């Protein structure tokens, strides 16, 4: 997965991501640009609020966390669990099923097998490394891209379209961005590391 994540550099231009793609990922929950949410005509008279697209809604890392018994902070868990509402229901059920199953970590601990412990720790370490690398990606695609956009130096690649280079200001601090994002991502990475079995 880390190898696949590195391909981001070959295919996604940070300026295009920050100024064009990110806008479509911002959603309308906790978004100052749309404080009331959105009325879905023909569905509900009341406005509805939904988070934007995020790989936090993808099943795979939730499944690894549950399998490896990773325990995130209360605040991070609340966010991550909320993201499960956006998974296809059978995916969510799968993740919850793993969470309810007997603990793999406890099984390894009671087996006393050093090789199994080492293999388990390699998995946890790979997951923490993926999360560290993801932080590097977020820094490049959000923090650095934001600084360049603000300085008016964004240089989107070919095919970016006329709107590239100037992000809507209402989305500057919320959604996919902001320092709270790094606190969250680092906390999730650090609690992953804490999931290692000590010798
Ligand atoms: C331009 C590329 C990317 C950017 C800028 C980015 C940004 C972010 C941000 C800001 C969050 C915080 C939660 C949120 O606001 O939704 C997040 C969470 C997350 N992202 Fe990404 N992301 C990128 C690509 C990816 C990819 C390709 C993956 C797949 C491995 C991924 C996996 C995750 C996961 C699993 C989370 C939840 C936190 C965690 O479990 O560690 N992201 N991402």
TrEMBL record:
<comment type="similarity">
    <text>Belongs to the indoleamine 2,3-dioxygenase family.</text>
</comment>
<keyword id="KW-0479">Metal-binding</keyword>
<dbReference type="InterPro" id="IPR037217">
    <property type="entry name" value="Trp/Indoleamine_2_3_dOase-like"/>
</dbReference>
<keyword id="KW-0349">Heme</keyword>
<feature type="region of interest" description="Disordered">
    <location>
        <begin position="153"/>
        <end position="176"/>
    </location>
</feature>
<dbReference type="Pfam" id="PF01231">
    <property type="entry name" value="IDO"/>
</dbReference>
<dbReference type="GO" id="GO:0004833">
    <property type="term" value="F:L-tryptophan 2,3-dioxygenase activity"/>
</dbReference>
<protein>
    <submittedName>
        <fullName>Uncharacterized protein</fullName>
    </submittedName>
</protein>
<dbReference type="GO" id="GO:0046872">
    <property type="term" value="F:metal ion binding"/>
</dbReference>
<dbReference type="GO" id="GO:0020037">
    <property type="term" value="F:heme binding"/>
</dbReference>
<dbReference type="GO" id="GO:0033754">
    <property type="term" value="F:indoleamine 2,3-dioxygenase activity"/>
</dbReference>
<dbReference type="GO" id="GO:0019441">
    <property type="term" value="P:L-tryptophan catabolic process to kynurenine"/>
</dbReference>
<keyword id="KW-0823">Tryptophan catabolism</keyword>
<dbReference type="InterPro" id="IPR000898">
    <property type="entry name" value="Indolamine_dOase"/>
</dbReference>
<dbReference type="GO" id="GO:0005737">
    <property type="term" value="C:cytoplasm"/>
</dbReference>
<feature type="binding site" description="proximal binding residue">
    <location>
        <position position="134"/>
    </location>
    <ligand>
        <name>heme b</name>
    </ligand>
</feature>
<dbReference type="GO" id="GO:0034354">
    <property type="term" value="P:'de novo' NAD+ biosynthetic process from L-tryptophan"/>
</dbReference>
<keyword id="KW-0408">Iron</keyword>
């Amino acid at each position: 997965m880390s190898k696949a994540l590195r391909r981001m550099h070959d295919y996604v231009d940070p300026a295009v991501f920050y100024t064009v793609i990110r806008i479509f990922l911002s959603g309308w929950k906790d978004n100052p640009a749309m404080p009331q949410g959105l009325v879905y005509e023909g569905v509900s008279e009341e406005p509805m609020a939904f988070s934007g697209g995020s790989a936090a809604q993808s099943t795979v890392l939730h499944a690894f966390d549950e399998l490896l018994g990773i325990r995130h902070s209360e605040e991070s868990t609340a966010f991550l669990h909320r993201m499960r509402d956006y998974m296809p229901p059978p995916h969510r059920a799968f993740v919850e099923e793993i969470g309810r199953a007997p603990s793999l970590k406890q099984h390894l601990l009671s087996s006393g097998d050093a090789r199994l412990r080492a293999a388990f720790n390699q998995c946890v370490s790979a997951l923490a490394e993926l999360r560290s690398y993801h932080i590097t990606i977020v820094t490049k695609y959000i923090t650095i891209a934001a600084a360049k956009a603000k300085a008016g130096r964004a240089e989107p690649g070919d095919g970016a379209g006329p709107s590239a280079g100037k992000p809507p200001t209402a989305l500057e601090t919320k959604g996919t961005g902001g320092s709270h994002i790094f606190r969250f991502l680092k906390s999730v990475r650090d609690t992953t590391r804490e999931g290692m079995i000590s010798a």
